[in-house]
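> forwarded from #structure-qc
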């Protein structure tokens, strides 16, 4: 399994923990005397890109326009096995579901995997894509932070001098946050130390990735 899977899982847990206080506050603010509203829901199967799973290892995200993103399996086996991008070892691509259309947003040139981690109300999607290169420090496929524009164009956000990065989410101003490796050796391996160099939080805006520091 690609070691970048660990960072993505830690990132999702961190985002959940950050969201919990807000969710609790929202729940507490509701009046216990309020008349309950009974809502009806329709379950929609979004499908896959030809493989067995979609959003199995990354929860799908939805914006206010009802657009959904995540990762879906194609029918192609991951050629990097056993260093697969996702644990089921199928090539996965980021998708955008919009008004019943399930669109494959692809990867960076040469990559065999991507996933969407956040979508804003303009339809921009932040995530990660493999780039077809092998990380010289780890010997596994490199994952790079990317931004899909609303028209599907993919933008390579780069790193902070290291070999890998991951975009966690994007706001409605097009600002992207995530984690990126710099060139300083990481002497304390841990959940964020698998890239071989330090992992730093970043803010990307208008083509510039900025290290947010300690």
């Amino acid at each position: 399994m690609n070691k970048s899977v660990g960072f993505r899982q830690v990132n999702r847990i961190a985002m959940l923990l950050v969201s919990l206080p807000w969710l609790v506050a929202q729940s507490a603010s509701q009046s216990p005397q309020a008349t309950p509203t009974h809502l009806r829901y329709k379950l929609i199967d979004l499908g896959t890109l030809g493989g067995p799973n979609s959003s199995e290892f990354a929860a799908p995200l939805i914006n206010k326009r009802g657009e959904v993103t995540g990762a879906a399996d194609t029918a192609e086996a991951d050629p990097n096995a056993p260093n697969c991008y996702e644990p089921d070892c199928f090539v996965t691509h980021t998708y955008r579901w919009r008004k019943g259309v399930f669109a494959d947003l692809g990867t960076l040139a040469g990559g065999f995997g991507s996933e969407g981690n956040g979508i804003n109300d303009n339809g921009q999607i932040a995530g990660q894509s493999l780039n077809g290169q092998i990380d010289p420090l780890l010997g596994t496929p490199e994952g790079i932070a990317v931004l899909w524009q609303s028209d599907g164009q993919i933008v390579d956000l780069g790193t902070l001098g290291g070999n890998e990065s991951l975009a966690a989410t994007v706001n409605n101003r097009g600002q992207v946050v995530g984690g990126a490796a710099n060139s300083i050796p990481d002497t304390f391996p841990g959940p964020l130390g698998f890239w071989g160099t330090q992992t730093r939080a970043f803010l990307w805006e208008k083509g510039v990735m900025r290290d947010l520091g300690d």
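QC bot note: The first strand starts at residue 50 and ends at 54. The two ends are 29 Å apart (CA to CA).
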